[in-house]
Design brief:
The complex is a heterodimer of chains A (about 270) and B (about 160). By secondary structure, chain A is of the alpha+beta class. Chain A has 11 helices and 14 strands. Chain A has a 5-stranded antiparallel β-sheet. Chain A has a 4-stranded antiparallel β-sheet with strand order 9-10-13-14, sandwiched between helices. In chain A, strands 1-3-2 form a 3-stranded parallel β-sheet, with helices on one face. In chain B, a hairpin with a 2-residue loop joins strand 1 and strand 2. In chain B, helix 2 crosses helix 5. With about 160 residues, chain B is α+β, with helices and mostly antiparallel strands. Classes of the chains: A alpha+beta (about 270), B alpha+beta (about 160). The structure holds flavin-adenine dinucleotide (FAD) and FE2/S2 (inorganic) cluster (FES) (2 copies). The site of flavin-adenine dinucleotide has 28 residues of chain A, from strand 2, helix 2, helix 5, helix 6 and helix 7.
């Protein structure tokens, strides 16, 4: 079925068009929207696009970096200042998907996707959105919890603070098909160290619940401690708390629960 | 619903067509321009046989909204041969028996071209990575990898 495509020069016009039409869907890279159209998804009757340069801007020089929602993974990989985000960007799809898929679209990608978002969640990112009534910043965790209700709002950009060192931020995607493949589970850890102790631990998990989640019990096990074997063991055994994975072709819920602690232990101890 | 006028470059020639809203580039190329070299495999981004280059970058034409290529340059397998001669990659695919049923071949060649255009002497791992979005249902990956390496002058295992 043919759909109406509306192309706007500015993000705010596109946001206006999105918020006033329940059947409208924003087109980022299109990797998921076009798939839905190809499959005959009749819930989409309007596709909204914006050609606003602001949506593809990368600001990577300052300690706080900002990525426009329309920035592709290939562009993240081409940016030396974004080295800390290269592992998550590289873990997505094949080269064509990385040339097309965007940071903004990843925030909405359902399981087994949304890998980049796991990294952003561990980095306490902020999501800038524009609704019918102007723009605002939302903490990414809040954004994800209300993701189902975000229809009608346009994501403008995401921003986060650069980790202090490459040791402080770790990412791992568990997949059956390498080098590409959907996520059995995805883990990211941000472990800022202050005076030899972890201060502000963040552990984020993908494919372990309907949306990406923080592993709060594991974070508590790490907080205020040094990253030694006992601390890692405590965090690993707490990793399962609060998760509610489901079964899919890549793995069963049971399997995911069984191995989440193992993968967190490996991530925290720097094991391959 | 009205038709949308669309102009872009197709293998070095300007084309002008009318598309329906929501038409994907694969359908536009095959049904409106008559270029049958990009294949339809899945329509979901999963197989890569519809791969084309858009402004030199590898994209999946089945997941590209046709309208988004206005004013851009598309390369498909149809434009790959160099006059009467095959492109070195095509020659290497033929010489190294890299096609069985041939269904994945157009996408494999586009993915390989995207790689070689920016990296003239890739490693084996880089070749594997470059074609990782392309499925060969005949599972003939080894000859394909060897053919791509051969086209770069790289050493090929028997
Ligand atoms: C073969 C294949 C493999 C893949 N592999 C992976 C993978 O390994 N890991 C992974 O995480 N993902 C993967 N994906 C999923 C997808 O490509 C990515 O998640 C990508 O980031 C989605 O971005 P997009 O711009 O293409 O989204 P689109 O398809 O354009 O949009 C997806 C959703 O997000 C909404 N949206 C997009 N941008 C905005 C915005 N700025 N504001 C508001 N809403 C917006 C759309 O309306 C739509 O609902 C894969 C997809 C395919 C087809
Ligand atoms: S037809 Fe486009 S990826 Fe399969
Ligand atoms: S040769 Fe048959 S699909 Fe690859």
């Amino acid at each position: 079925m043919a759909v109406t495509v509306k192309t706007f020069a500015s993000a705010s016009e596109a946001a206006g068009a999105l918020s006033s039409d329940r059947t409208a869907r924003y087109l980022g890279g299109g990797t998921l929207v076009m798939r839905a159209l190809n499959e005959g998804d009749v819930s989409i009757s309007t596709v909204v696009r914006a050609q606003d340069q602001a949506l593809t801007r990368i600001d990577a020089s300052a300690p706080r970096i900002t990525l426009g929602a329309g920035v592709t993974f290939a562009r993240v990989l081409a940016e030396r200042d974004l080295a800390f985000l290269h592992a998550p960007a590289r873990s997505i799809g094949g080269p064509a998907v990385r040339n097309m898929g965007t940071v903004g679209g990843n925030l909405f990608a359902p399981n087994p996707y949304g890998d980049f978002t796991v990294a952003l969640l561990a980095l306490d990112a902020t999501v800038a959105v524009q609704g019918g009534f102007g723009s605002r910043d939302i903490p990414i965790e809040e954004f994800l919890q209300a993701r189902e209700r975000q229809a009608g709002t346009l994501v403008l950009s995401v921003s986060c603070t650069r980790p202090a060192s490459s040791e402080a931020f770790r990412y791992r995607k568990i997949a059956r098909i390498k080098p590409k493949g959907g996520s059995v589970m995805t883990l990211a850890a941000h472990l800022p160290i202050s005076g030899g102790r972890i201060a502000g631990a963040r552990i984020a998990l993908g494919s372990m619940a309907p949306t990406q989640i923080r592993a709060r019990a594991a974070e508590r096990a790490l907080e205020g401690r040094s990253l030694d074997a006992a601390t890692i063991a405590a965090a690993a055994s707490a990793a399962i708390e609060g998760t509610s994975p489901s079964d899919n072709a890549l793995g069963s819920a049971w399997y995911r629960r069984e191995v989440v602690g193992v993968h967190l232990r490996r991530l925290l101890s720097g094991q391959e | 619903m009205s038709k949308i006028p669309l102009q872009f470059r197709h293998n070095g020639r300007d084309v002008a067509i009318f598309v329906d809203g929501g038409t994907n580039l694969l359908v536009a190329l095959r049904e409106l321009i008559g270029d049958m070299t990009p294949k339809f495999g899945c329509g979901q981004g999963g197989c890569g046989t519809c791969s084309v280059l858009i402004d030199g970058e590898l994209h999946l034409s089945c997941l590209t909204l046709a309208e988004t290529v206005a004013g851009r340059s598309i390369e498909t397998l149809d434009g790959m041969k160099q006059g009467p001669n095959l492109h070195p990659l095509q020659r290497a695919f033929a010489d190294h028996f890299a096609a069985q049923c041939g269904y994945c071949t157009p996408g494999m060649l586009m993915a390989a071209k995207a790689l070689l255009d920016r990296n003239a002497s890739p490693s084996r791992d880089e070749v594997i990575e470059a074609i990782s979005g392309n499925i060969c249902r005949c599972t003939g990956y080894e000859p394909i990898i060897n053919a791509i390496l051969a086209a770069t002058g790289g050493r090929v295992s028997a």
